[in-house]
Amino acid sequence: MTEAKNFRELAQSFGGVAAEYDRGRPTYPDGLFDALERLSGRALKGARVLDVGAGTGIATRLLAARGADVVAVEPNGGMAAQFLTSSPGLPLVRASGDDLPFHDRSADLITYAQAFHWTRPELAVPEAIRVLRPGGALATWWNVHDETVPWVRARAERMAAALPERYHGYGGISEHTSHFAPAGLAVERTVLRWERRVTVDHVITDLTSRSYLASLDPDERAPVLAAEREATLAEFPGGWVVEPFTLELVVAVTPS
Q1: How many CB atoms lie within 10 A of CB 154?
Q2: Partners of residue 112 on adjacent β-strands
Q3: What are the pLDDT digits (tens) for 135-175?
Q4: Which residue, among 21, 59, 17, 10, has the nearest Cα to 202 in the 3D structure?
Q5: For 15-72, what is each residue's pLDDT tens digit?
Q6: Residue 227 within any structural domain of the chain
Q7: What's the CATH number where 75 sits?
Q8: Are 249 and 35 in contact (CB under 8 A)?
Q9: Is the whole-model pTM more than 0.90?
């Protein structure tokens, strides 16, 4: 499988697991949005925000709850359909960050929650700069499973062994944001640590929505998920999992 074909297949796979994505994926703690306001230099309340790669609207809903005037941008049909179900009343535009259908200097903030690595940065960064107002910000963030915790690291090792052509782990935030500073953006970074307490079933639902599993046929995916359920129950026999995350945030501000 070529790298380009693999990338397209992984990106397209989310449509088939959009419901699992919305149910299983982690949310974001309030501290993320406090940090976003601090690093961008402006309040979310009243800000014109484009949430690009919005998926089912997990971050979009939280941005709206903070008072942002937010528009979701999502290219995938299945994810967009789930967005309309999960995020009623919030506006949605079918497009990608590589070609934003918005006027020049029309947004205060462009956000990518768990999504910037699906863009072509050489296109997405200039598009963001074009659409942002002077002093506006491009913000990207990722919830990352904390592999300093032994059971999380063991799960990653199992995935790498089971899916060597699909699972490559997380390469770090700099891998995806190296285009920001050369484009003339002032870059700030921070990391938050948090955890959630969920059931084993919830963990498996989350895994089902991950691209390296979502892109498999159901009969190929089933044994991998069954093995993960067994391993997770062995680690947490009571059925409840404390799942640790590091949340990596990069905010890149345009010149005023």
Answers
A1: 13
A2: 52, 140
A3: 999 999 999 999 999 999 999 999 999 999 889 877 677 77
A4: 21
A5: 899 999 999 999 999 999 999 999 999 999 999 999 999 999 999 999 999 999 999 9
A6: no
A7: 3.40.50.150
A8: yes
A9: yes
Q: Tell me which residue range forms the domain holding 102.
A: 3-145+171-195+245-253
- Biggest alpha carbon–alpha carbon distance for the chain: 55
Q: How many CB atoms lie within 10 A of CB 215?
A: 21
Kindly state the tokens that stand for 166: 């699909």
What's the pLDDT tens digit per position in 91-105?
A: 999 999 999 999 999
